[in-house]
Amino acid sequence: MARLTLLALCGAALLARHTLNFVAGRAPGRAPQVSRRAEADEEEEPEYVAAEGDRLKLKVLSPEGDGISLACSEVILPSASGQLGVLANHAPMMSALDTGVLRYKEDGQWKPIVVMGGFASIDANQLSVLVNDFEKAEDIDAEKMQSEMEAATALLEKAASKKDKLEANQKVKRAAARMQAAMFLTRKK
Question: Which positions fall inside the ATP synthase F1 complex delta/epsilon subunit N-terminal domain (predicted)?
Fold first, then answer.
């Protein structure tokens, strides 16, 4: 519950920032002093050597502080209203994310990450994705994945109350996303 609250607060802060800049007519480059200091801290991170054509910086962050930061050329997000494609020079926007597979194209290769809901914000060729949790496709155990899907489906069939059905539905979504990401990797081999 604490993660969800933290994620909601981060999403609300990002939305407020973009809304105020839009309403006030300020350019995105004229950020408040606190933002400038945060951006200065980011500059201390090692620069990624991007392949030719990789012009979009992707950052995936979870409440635990885990994250991925890399350069890519294209990202497909599992937004709450369907899949959302992001290329370099995309218009600034924000979107809610659903549980699903985030795919990004790095060095001409598509790579999947399973995300468990959150928010995405794009501005100035930087895509920031704040998620409840995420998992790299390489870390998924294919044998465990199949049994997890069967258990989640059985739990959904047995659910009686609305709360139980909602929880079981989330488990099925997560298992399906993990299965999709793992199959994505096996198809490429």
Answer: 56-133
